[in-house]
Amino acid sequence: MKRRSLLAAGALGTLGMTLAACGESGGSGEDGEFDPGNRVTMIVPFSAGGGSDIAGRAIAAGLEEVTGSTVTVENRVGGSGAVGYSDLRNSEGDGSVLLASETALNTLPIVQDVDFTYESFTPIMKAGEDFNIVVVAADSPYQSISDVIDAAKSEQLTAAVSGSTGPDHIAWSLIEQEQDITLERVTFESSSEVLAALMGGHVQVAASNPGELTGQLESGDIRALCALAPERYEYELLADIPTGAEEGVNVTFAQWRGFIAPGGIEDAAREYWIEKAKEYEKTEAFSEFIESNMLQPVTAYGDEFVSYLEQYSADVESALGN
Amino acid sequence: MIDNLMLGIETAVSPENLLWCAVGVVLGTLIGLMPGLGSATGVAILLPVTLTMEPVTALIMLAGIYYGSQYGASTSSILISTPGDSSSVVLTLDGYRMARNGRAGAALAISAISSFIAAIISLMVLLALAAPVASWALNFGPPETLAIILLGMATIVTFAGENMLRGIIMAAAGLLLAMIGTASGFTTARFTFGSMNLLSGLEFVAVMIGIFAIGEVVHQIHRGGEKPIRARLRDLMLTKDEAKRILPPALRGTFLGTALGVLPGAGATLASFMSYGLEGRVSKHRKELGSGAVEGVAAPEASNNAAANSSFIPTLALGIPGSGTTAILLGAFVIFGLQPGPMLFEQQPDLVWGLLVSFFFGNLLLLVLNLPLAPVFAQVLRIPYSYLYPIIIVLSMVGAYAVGNSMFAVWVVFFAGALGYFMKRYGFPAAPLVLGLVLGPMLERSLVQTSSMGHGNLLIVFERPLSAFFMVLAILAFVGPPLLGVINRRRERSRQEKAATPA
């Protein structure tokens, strides 16, 4: 009997968690002002605990602070993110649903048969950019990115990438195009597996976001060759890393993070979220999110964000060669 | 070392840390009991709750959830053949068999004791050798992983039960199902029929819940009239003979689990399957495997707990997670402003050693909780099936839905359940299918990675000493038993012929 009631309690708990998702949706007030209502849903298209989830939860908490609404994070997992985006599509016109978005919004429509592009949604805020840093193992013979490029001209080098369409893969493709070299890709599931392969000497080079590299950079297990960013980083740990351009590689590539709303929402709703996102940018919570993940706080809102996405999709398309 | 240990004990035995450690292991056990709710989901869901605590307290609690759920997951595998986690699938073989034979209490006790043995030994390895073991583990690249997975596949023979051909068919079916989704290292979508839900493959947990839980329930309904198991209290206790048989398989399982847990990505599931396979080769009681043998519970249970502990080795020492759950814990470290890696041991010794020592108290508590509770939990089998079945089905559906917050997983459970029913009815073993499904994506990934590393030449697996060693073991494991069978039959025949000639 004990076990049964215990299982039942557990089941109720789970049900509670899932039911909590179904909130009231928002609408316009009588004076044309948009009000999302008390319950806002932030869809995270990846599973709990990952980088996208951490970012989504940080943004949700920040928005909760500036709107006063309850922002519930829901992980809708599947299809490398496609399921979550597809769910957002089904909420067309609903201003109380948001999605914590990143580069997958640009890559998925290019590499997979999905029924959306960034144009299907209402981009609200690009919160930050996460540039790639090229790294080698501590005992690698390569001291600079030019060493790597020179070596790649005479022998076959392997680069570990996380995911076959990830930002590091795209960054390498752009470098290949610019420098006229080819690198063999060894595809791993996550940045940490990439690092393990690099430190174990199984691959020669890798590129990743600073947030993923801090521990190993601090301990000296890996060495940074260059940052594929327009300017040097100001974070203490990264300040000495030259940019690609300083070393003759004119490639910059970042993963962006931010949030979007469904397509077809009222103008008032769009304005409301842009307004609130701008407020969020000024909060302590925002700076903390940016700093703890070592992002560059290059923000963009509404139309500006849309043109960024347009350019980004073009870059991705050229890099993935489709 | 001793200083560190003292420092660790000092941190871990503070009343607050002990309390949260206890809360963690109890919550972990409950989460593990729920089908489909594994340790990774548990830690991720409860992570936000710990944000207001001291970092070390929060990590102690989150780690407690992790290893606590390993205990809970085995309990539901044994009692109702519904694995809470992929690493406890193997327990549905002998553990569930034992429960059906009226030895549920004993099976649970064996599982608790062998988990405890494994936890303590692997913890000592963790305390003494974390740093050197972690750097050594880096030598395992894709070719080595490939070789180890092939070695794991070779253990299928053991799971096949009496009919090897059926076992191999099911393993192949598992591998085929694992092909669904985006090809590893490429963007090609295979067998998805345009469905976005299938892009990242079939959700393993949903298939597992369907085949085991739903399949078993429907099969029992089909057979009809199963009587609840009315075990007497005496039957719930471990017999002397059973107690004696725990230690050797538990030690072997601990060894395998500790070794595989260190390797990034290999993990607890592979360890539990392989240790069961190992028992099938070396145990004195290997003939009893599959019909409710102590070894079939002790070995895999020890190995999955050892693997859970040793996956902390690369996580703490290198900042590279050894399992899905430690990846989430790594995220927790970062949220608390800590960066796992060699520096952590120097900068925050009280945190690292406090966390590790807390494992000892957590596991002790789990043993103290689980041993007396084993007979109590076993009472679940006395519930008439007309009440038990609906509960299992509802829990399974909720568990599957919770995995991705989507109805699609629930449909997968239905289909897998139908499949599981027919497999049971026509005598096709489920474990090889699950093994194929778990190992399929890992096999494909390491195969593609090895191929890129060798610039198309797969033979590099024989050029690297470590991978060559495991490849030879794998080949021996594949070829050995059939070859031995042929030799034995020859010998038998010639003996018969000899016996026949004089007459």
Describe the 3D structure.
The complex is a heterodimer of chains A (322) and B (503). Chain A has helices at residues 2-19, 51-67, 82-90, 104-111, 145-154, 167-179, 191-199, 210-219, 267-281, 284-292, 302-320, and strands at residues 27-28, 34-35, 39-44, 70-75, 97-102, 121-131, 133-137, 158-162, 184-188, 205-208, 222-227, 254-262, 300-301. With 322 residues, chain A is α/β, with parallel strands linked by helices. Chain A has two domains: 33-129 and 255-319, Bordetella uptake gene, domain 1 (D-Maltodextrin-Binding Protein, domain 2); 133-252, 3-Layer(aba) Sandwich (D-Maltodextrin-Binding Protein, domain 2). In chain A, the strands form three sheets. Chain A has a six-stranded mixed beta sheet, sandwiched between helices. A five-stranded mixed beta sheet of chain A has the order 9-8-10-7-11. Chain B is mostly helical and 503 residues long. Chain B has 22 helices and two strands. The model of chain B has no long low-confidence stretch (mean pLDDT 85). A two-stranded antiparallel sheet of chain B has the order 1-2. At the A-B interface, α1, α2, α3, β9 and α7 of A face α2, α3, α15, α16 and α18 of B.
